[in-house]
Amino acid sequence: MAHSIIVENLSKQYRIGELHRETTLSETLIHTLTQLFKRKRKETIWALKDVSFKINAGEVLGIIGRNGSGKSTVLKVLAKITYPTSGTTKVLGRVASLLEVGTGFHEELTGRENIYLNGSILGMTKRETDAKLDEIIDFSGVEKFVDTPIKRYSSGMRLRLGFAVAAHLDTEVLLVDEILAVGDAEFQKKCLKTMGNLSGTGRTVLFVSHNMEAIKNLCQRVIWIDNGKVRQDGEPREVIKDYMSSFIGMHQPAHGFAHITNRGGNGDIRYNRIEFLSSDKQPLKAAYSGNSFVARLYYYAEKQIPSPHFGLELFTELGTKITSFNTWTSGFEVPFLPPGNGYIDLEVESLNISAGRYYISLWIASSGNLWYDRLEQCAVLDVEPSDFYKSGREIKRQHTHLFGIVLFPCKWNLKGESPK
Amino acid sequence: MKSEYLLELWRYRELFYFLVWRNLKVRYKQTILGASWAIIQPVFTMIVFTLFFGRLAKIPSDGIPYPVFSYCALLPWTYFSTTLTQSGNSLVGNKNLITKIYFPRVTIPASYALSGLLDLGLASVVLLGMMAYYQIQISWGLLLLPFLVLLLVLLVLGVGMIFSSLNVRYRDIKYCLPFIIQIWLFITPVIYPTSFLPERFRILIAFNPTCGIIEAFRASLLPTRDVDWHLLGISVLMTLLIFTSGILYFRKTEKDFADII
To answer: Within a domain: residue B22?
Structure first.
């Protein structure tokens, strides 16, 4: 099969501090002067190092990786926005890059005018836009406001308009970066549907995302970029599983969080570790489907925290969020938390999930939308099979795909009318 | 390489057209006076210049009524200074485009060089009225005008490319650009005629390309003045020099724009 994208030994070096910093002449002068008297410091990082891969024409490929792993840099190099330090890239056919929805939108221009502007920025000719204008307007769902300057638009309307233009691109190669991270659920669904329609149309799509669910559903192949290198390249489920489990490998031992560096939040209060207990608060050897269990979350508060909310999210091995246990939806109010160490227990009456490996994310937030701490996939919960329905039939791990992830306690009743 | 680049510019001509169109569209949005600003600016400058430099300071204007004398120079000068300010800040102002999409970067400063011409055209209408009022005849020299405008576009593009790309790395440009333009006005014969200067300064000032271009503007519009071909010749050479260095510098630096902007 013909290749559509060929990347060979691609490396990209950034000078540290070069990214998004405003330099002024005086700073450069001072810097140059101090450099004269100092020994040269090493101040470069490799955002990408020796990345090679080939993509077949018509393939939909996903790129995953942690924040700052270099996955967006790959896209930017392919889109010719930034230049590689070494190595070569080759893209065959017309390319459109979609690094953001509504690139180049101008506040003062109307929706219609912005469709033309954005279209031409994304590489559509005026004739193409003319031909598709009605479709685009229809798709965007902002017909009524199409002659209003977009500064009067809500952010949702802007997104829909931008996406409507993007959805009507028909280049051979499409580079898409994390556009699903924005917008409401409805918008995301629309995006996914449109993206889904792309596969099988013979177009080559490169799709960067944190949304494992989307990657799994859309892509035929996944590349995992870690620290600027290709860590794995292959079948989506395999790569995603390994990627998800890599979070844990890093954060062991014993579910302590001390060495996690890329955690979010302002740090006024931090989780120390997590412990799994049985309902009588004894250490838990194994969690079973349908059994009760307790997650004990240890924290340390720097200062007094007014009305904090705690959350624990449960993800499948493929990154689908199953549930979010949190004090906010549960209505459990903590007026204030004194500074120092402590723990909070989450008691789950029945673990209604089938056997398998699950990942846990933790957060602490204020009721005013301020993050104190955020830990992505920081712990693992292995759930062992059990006889959940008391039928003598254990639902085994390898049968999860048959019987599903969630188990509901239920009963069956049959009422048959026997023929007379 | 060179022809490849030109080919690419050609391929992106529609985007260039849309950028020019955008600049024009948004230029006077949400203003009460709209496009009349294109006229108000040079006209009021002309009035102020006439009062202070013509009447009070009694700066000679070689026998031409001072308002006409200064307005003939203010037309190209206003285009030059306004466009230079815009194109100098253009890359930084279009940061979102540069970091998100590929296209030949030069289309950004170039789009401002082109869209500024509309203002120049609008402001020129006033000149016609003034010439009628002072009963100044139009001469064949007018045929030189398109060439002079082209020269001015090349010059502003050259300087604009240098400043805009410097601005990407050093934001100092944003602050010193207005200052540079102010100084530039004083070393350009807008307020005064070149003949006002002592001989030894006249040679020096000839190296300022706006000098020859603006004097030629006057000469082509006013029948009583002759084109100083030597002066214009130097200006043409300087313009080509600046334009070429602008392109070379821009091409050399544009690869890093997205990384450092």
So the answer is: no
